[in-house]
Amino acid sequence: MPVDSVVGLPMIDLLAILFLFSCCFIAGFVAKSSWGRNIQNRIDDLLLQLVPGYAWIKGMTSSVSAEEAAGVFKPVWIRLDDQYQVGFEVERCEGGLVAVFLPGAPDPRTGTLSYVESDRVDDLDSSFKDVAKNFRRLGLGSAAIISQSKIPTQSSA
């Protein structure tokens, strides 16, 4: 196609736009297929193993579905001797133990990994983002999280 003509240059631009649009459409089609999801899951698993903090970033960005985010870091209450602590369930282990990440405040990306008995762990009726925000604010807004969850307090026991 001659570029020197009046129609040539806009036609090349139009063809480039159509080409990019077609590539995006095909990529979206592949991503929605079971084959594409399988590849995405393998890449995701590899990144979880190789990149420190990938699970944290994945949960913070909410670029994943609610089900996937809940699977990455599920907010939980941990009953200790005379207190409750908010944490994120990492996984259930054999023998009745639960691996729980106990974040620090004000930076919830740091913390401690603890293993507690499963009967000491209760689901927290709050989202990952709300709990992380609570840590960043040094507990300000905890009343809303506590009121949403059904944890037994000293007065109700």
Question: What would you note in describing this structure?
Answer:
The chain has 157 residues and is an alpha+beta fold. It folds into 2 domains: 49 residues; 76 residues, Roll (SH3 type barrels). It is 46% helix and 20% strand. The protein has a 5-stranded antiparallel sheet with strand order 4-3-2-1-5. The model has no long low-confidence stretch (mean pLDDT 79).
Kindly name the structural category. Answer: alpha+beta
Q: What is the CATH class of the largest domain?
A: Mainly Beta
What proportion of the residues is helical, as a percent range? 40-55%
User: SSE order in H/E notation?
Assistant: HHHHEEEEEHH
Strand order of the largest sheet: 4-3-2-1-5
Main pleated sheet: 5 strands, antiparallel
What is the overall silhouette?
A: elongated
Q: What fold name goes in the CATH topology slot of the largest domain?
A: SH3 type barrels
Number of domains: 2
